[in-house]
Fold this protein.
Amino acid sequence: MSSIKAFVDQVRKEHHTSAYHSDGLIVRRGLPVKLGVGNGDSTLSLTCIPVHEKNRSQLGPQLTLSPGEPTDGWSVDPSDDALTLTIPPDAIVGVYEISLGGEKGAMTVLFNPWCEEDECYMEDAAGRDEYVLNQNGRIWVGSSKSLSGRPWTFAQFKTKSLLASMDLLDRMPWEDRRSAVLVSRHLTAVVNSADENGMLTGNWSGDYSGGTSPLAWTGSAEIMAKFWDSQQPVQFGQCWVFSGVLTSCLRAVGVAARSVTNFVSGHDSTKPYNRAIDKYYSADGEPDEERSMDSIWNFHVWNEAWMRRRDLLAEEERYDMSFGGWQAVDATPQEVSEGMYKMGPAPLSAIKAGIHVDYDVDFVIGEVNADVVHQWHDEATGKHKVRAKNQRHVGQKISTKLVGRDDREDVTIHYKYPEGSQEERDSWGRRPAAERPIEKESEEEDVTFAVEAPDDVATGETIVLHVKATNTGDSSRQVVLRTLARAVDYTGVVRGRIDATKSTVTVEPGETEMLSIQVTPEEYKQFLTTGLPAIQFTSTGKVMDTQQSWSFIDTVRFNSDEMLKIDCPDNAELGKTLEVQAVIRNGTSSISARFNPIPPSK
């Protein structure tokens, strides 16, 4: 065995890297590395090298170490049978070529959540086991009313997973690779292929020909292996796939990370971000889709990475608070940041406090705590006026996997104070000073509105929604009620208009009038071919006597729990056929199949 790998098993155990499939020298910075004595020569040379052979001409920093001559935190100390290499806790993360005693080998250096001097240090041992070492997890999908944990295999220790992750790091300046802040930000840009021909191509069209449907992936290993082998983007991904892969990359390079799902997730496209999802309507209550550029996703999945924020020390002193700990990072290409599709790291403490610091905090605030602002066109002035605000809709049941269990942990409180509390309103109000106030126009309100709709439905069921108007005043009111039903995907993108209904009713004092709409399977089945479809109802009400206006958006998701049912006996007898029945419901039809396995040969 070479001197470089003489103690490789011992070193990898001490460095918590034994799980990596590669048999190479994989270490974490900030810890000593025991090497063999190379032919009695204790002089050691290190060179940062790209992981892929095609890039080997682009060598990084070089370093020569001799006993008693530490350099930039690196040192070597010989003993009778070994040489101890000390790696500083801020060393460049990547692959190093080692030359020792005429021998050459490779050493992969990772971030170190076990080292207190490393910016990625995580004190909680159970947290390190979960967020660095665990290869299996859950990514929550669905809606705030009907959510489920999708199993995902991160496979961060597979050889090609590590190679692919290091290959992505080779696209950034060497010195930047000392910083977990810059590394995590860089990975959010190159896990997607929007700018730098990165690992994974996003596709929300419903047409996945030439690639793999995002719904088909159950883990990161195949994606990362395909990327490493082809050096081309893999097709296709959506937000939970981007998140799963980013978790794998971060854990592979040593950063504690987890996938996080935000239900009813705002996408504020107004720049500077105004912490509002603006919805526009005509004077009659018809949605103005051309003007309404902001959107609400049924759910959106991003990531959190754990690190100190030494780049924000001045801001920590200014605000007298820490910005270390969990940071939001997102590889799904949504909005451009510094000229590229990347997001974060955004400190959760800053998001919750409503404080603008690097990076992209205001965008994340819009995702988790934007007000939904309904603006109606005023024919008298030609401008839009705020007629309704919903301050409690965006950002619900923010979810991640519980440490050590497959159950859901709700982390909403990490992102914002309880809805409606003074702390939450104060946080939301710390918007950029240039932004004008978003205040609801004062008007007489003596009619209350409400919507009754199911949380979710099984495919094949008719969806029924009721809009109610109740007169709480002393005079009769003439009310115009409207409801528009459209098919949308989980990102809120409209796939098609299904039906619309309108009714003008007279509501007497103390009475309630109702408008109903139903959507049948025949009307929605054509839209079930797109991924994760839902039916969105936009309801409006206008009191003609007082001009009081009201708007509400409700989304009904299709429950996929009943799409596949498998029936089999409780017990099986060795050597005899086991009959299993699988029933698959596809939209409004069912397919039944029986499987009779061949008995084992004698």
